[in-house]
Amino acid sequence: MDRLLSMEVFVAVVELGSLTAAAARHEMSPAMAAKHIKGLEARLGLRLMNRTTRRQSLTEAGQAYFARCKLILSDIRDAEQGAEAMRSAPRGHLRITSTVTFGSFALAPAIADYLSEYPDVSVDLALSDAVEDVVASRYDLAVRIGEPADSGLVARKIGRYQMIICAAPAYLERHGTPETASDLARHQCLDFSYWNRRTGWRLNSQEGDGATYPAGRFVSNNGQALRQAALAGFGIVLQPELLLAEDVRAGRLVPILQSAWPVARPITLLYPKDRKALPKLTTFVEFMVRRFTAPAKQQPSFC
């Protein structure tokens, strides 16, 4: 039998003074109410109530058990009320994962604005370019770049992610400016270690979509490191527009081979399906959709 229901019936019998009244409260027969009490006594190996034809009274063990049941049932009610409150207003903790560049340059300031609007929510943001299992890693939401796999998760596209090719003016003065994508084979192409080292860069060129070109001698798993190498004039960098836009605007890097830039990929929010998703997640998703799909979020003028 349902142990919690049996405890509720027991408390009702004590508070209301009869099996009949307790049975009516829980919409069951007196015989079923008596069965719940007997079930508790059998489980505990103790008599909880002294029964006569006219009245029932608690044994010493019954008095102690009644007090504990009251506390337990009160805690359960408090927990349920807390859960209901979480469904009525955004509150609680969100665990989010994102790629490093988008997470640090775009998502982090958006999260700060979200938290200012919803003071009862907190966020733990994990940045990594390694793809983790959202459910197994117990994340509430992941931001992914590119077309998401059919993972059974909800997918909301919030924008496009453009990669651009740049080099420092000093590098181009020394080595010349490549005119076609195939010219990159004669240059130092700064390589991102999460890409396939055997294929190098994948570009959108007249020589065929997805044409590949050899990487250079500098490899890193961090876009900022590659950016610094490019600024130092060591090679040509292919990294997100978000990471390089300020350097381009300031003239520290020069965009090249724009016709060969990879096709922009979708930015997608991924999160588990939940028929009754908590407001902390639904408000976060809608906030990010508004933030990144607003008309003002257009490509910079140099693109």
TrEMBL record:
GO molecular function, one term: DNA-binding transcription factor activity
Keywords: DNA-binding, Transcription, Transcription regulation
Keyword DNA-binding: yes
Domain HTH lysR-type residue range list: 1-59
GO biological process: DNA-templated transcription
Family matches, as Pfam families: HTH_1 (PF00126), LysR_substrate (PF03466)
Source taxon at top rank: Bacteria
InterPro entries in alphabetical order: LysR-type_TF_proteobact-type (IPR058163), LysR_HTH_N (IPR000847), LysR_subst-bd (IPR005119), WH-like_DNA-bd_sf (IPR036388), WH_DNA-bd_sf (IPR036390)
Protein family according to the UniProt entry: Belongs to the LysR transcriptional regulatory family.
Name of the protein in its database record: HTH-type transcriptional regulator DmlR
Organism: Achromobacter insolitus
Gene that encodes the chain: dmlR_8
